[in-house]
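PROTEIN DESIGN WORKSHEET
SECTION A - STRUCTURE
LENGTH: 263
TOKENS:
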């Protein structure tokens, strides 16, 4: 099939080691990077919402806000795709423990935050966004599946789209199952056509699933400790400004991504 061509207009990133995309660029250039604050700022949320929102929401909203600010778009106009392999693991662990031990004590607020599209809900309410929103989960391929969904939406409707992919650290028995030991989140603003805000032009080709692109140190082990860090080959490609990478998008489906000359 023909390649799917899309432009990147904004990038967001947050982990305990890297507070934004500029920090990743510096790290890949060999520069020491100070860690960000312990909690994502998620400044887009009103103070009351920020105080009571779970980490999964703060993480997703923080990277979404970074990417949209870089792109210059109005967040209220952007269709959005929120991807996560495991959702809010701490809340899921809490709910399972409470239902097993004292079901009547289950918190309605914690239950409200357990749904997979909770970050999308917080984001669209805070930004006044009435554009379409989608929540995607595809286990280890969640970033690739979310990227394919977002690119398809951008090209099919000829509109810019916000993609967010994030996972928190596991909690309780879930930590052993998911293997997520630290939070990681990223976001991209994608556009079907180049413009003043274009950072890179990408060509995506669907392929049989191959091994994902290897990462340089110190990033090599990150996808093993958070499934959303599967985005790092593409983020590193954007940081370097040239090259290609491979991502998984489903159990047997891969994405080959080439960075094209934007001149």
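SECTION B - SEQUENCE
RESIDUE ASSIGNMENT:
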């Amino acid at each position: 099939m023909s390649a799917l061509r899309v432009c990147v207009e904004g990038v967001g990133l947050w982990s305990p080691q890297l507070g934004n995309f500029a920090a990743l660029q510096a790290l890949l250039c060999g520069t020491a990077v100070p860690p960000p604050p312990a909690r994502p700022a998620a400044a887009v949320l009103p103070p009351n919402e920020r105080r009571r929102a779970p980490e999964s929401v703060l993480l997703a909203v923080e990277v979404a806000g970074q990417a949209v600010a870089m792109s210059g778009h109005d967040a209220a106009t952007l269709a959005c795709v929120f991807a996560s392999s495991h959702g809010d693991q701490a809340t899921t662990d809490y709910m399972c423990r409470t239902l097993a031990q004292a079901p009547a004590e289950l918190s309605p607020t914690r239950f409200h935050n357990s749904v997979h599209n909770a970050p999308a809900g917080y984001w669209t309410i805070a930004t006044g966004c009435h554009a379409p929103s989608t929540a995607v989960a595809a286990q280890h391929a969640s970033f690739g599946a979310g990227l394919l969904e977002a690119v398809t939406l951008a090209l099919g409707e000829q509109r810019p789209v916000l993609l967010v992919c994030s996972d928190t650290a596991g909690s309780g028995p879930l930590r052993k199952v998911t293997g997520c030991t630290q939070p990681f989140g990223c976001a991209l603003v994608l556009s079907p056509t180049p413009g003043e805000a274009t950072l890179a032009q990408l060509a995506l080709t669907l392929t049989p699933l191959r091994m994902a692109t290897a990462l340089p140190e110190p990033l090599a082990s990150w996808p093993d400790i958070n499934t959303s860090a599967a985005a790092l080959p593409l983020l590193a490609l954007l940081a370097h400004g040239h090259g290609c990478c491979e991502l998984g998008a489903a159990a047997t489906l891969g994405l080959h991504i080439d960075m094209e000359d934007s001149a």
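SECTION C - NOTES
The first helix runs from residue 21 to 28.
The longest strand covers residues 4-14.
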